[in-house]
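Kindly go through the following sequence and its backbone structure tokens. Advise at your convenience whether the structure tokens fit the sequence:

___
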Amino acid sequence: MKSHLVHFVIDCIFPSLLSLKEVETKFKILGSSSSGNAALLRTGKSNILIDAGLSGKKLKFLLSDEGLSIEELDAVFLTHEHNDHSAGIRGLSRYMNLPIFANRDTIDAIQPKLPRRPNWKRFETGQPFQFQEFKVHPFSVPHDAYDPVGFYFEWGKGDLFDPPSSLAWVTDLGFVPTLVRERIRQASILVIEANHCTEMLEKDEKRPWSLKQRIRGRHGHLSNQTTYELLESMENACWREVFLMHLSQDCNDVNLVRERFSTLPGQGKRFATYVIDPATAQPVGV
């Protein structure tokens, strides 16, 4: 599957209005594992990259598969400085016209590792801002980085001919604060991690006890069960599609996640759920 066609409604409470207007948006996860995370969002007006955890060469190759060049990107949005979310900035820094959005702490952590200065665009965590058609809400998430964020993107004019749409990108967090819960609930497209199976992590012999504690701590990663319980608890969620990503290649399994989330209330009726295979970055339906 090369890309996903996403249909959005005027308001999640009134899905019957879909017939009045459909907006074509393409969303594709390019990488999803500890080896690298990135995604492409195309609205017809803009092309943006969310995180850049793959090499510049790899990103160029994957974008070409989508019929895009790096020069056709409008912006890159970074969640935090960890290499599996920012490795591509070294290569992307060659493109001086490409805006790369990050907060101050993330920029300060990445810049010393770079041979040149990218076209940084600094935002303040918690302060929404406008970029082209997008209203961007960067919100704080609990993770072991300097100032990690999730993103909530809104676009569309809000009328019958250009209805509002939204995407929440929520990866790399150990628990879910109240504000993050609300962003998750509101999104048309929800991208959230289901990082590990607790039992597989416990039995893993490659990871020392200290690393296991970090992964399952309040500034680590969400387990399959934690993410399931979170989504199950949501009332009046607006999702049309849910993507489960950032699966551990050693401590999780695609089929295990599919089986667990197949019983999620509303799955297959109100929304579709996909698990992103960490080996191929391809979506597998639940």
Q: What stands out?
A: The longest strand covers residues 24-33.
